[in-house]
Amino acid sequence: MRFKVGFLVSLILVGLFSFGQASPMAIELKEQSRTKVLPLRFGQASPMAIELKSKAEVKGPWIYLMDLGRIQTACPQLLSQLKSLKVAKAPLPGSSRVLDRNYLRARLGQKGINLSHLTLRGAEQIKVLTLFAKVEGRQLIEVAKEFAKKNLPWGEENLEIKVVGRPRDLIIPAGKAELRAKKTLGAGLSLSGFIPVPIEVVVEGRVYRTVKVNLKVKVFQKVLISKKIIRKGEEIKKEDVGERITDISCLSKDVILDLNQIKGRCARRTIRANTILKEDLFEIPAVISRGEQVTIIAALGNLQIATLGRAKEEGRVGEVIRVENIETKKELQAKVIGERRVEVEVEEGNFEF
Question: Would you place residue 255 in the very low, low, confident or very high pLDDT band (cuts 50, 70, 90)?
Answer without folding.
Answer: confident
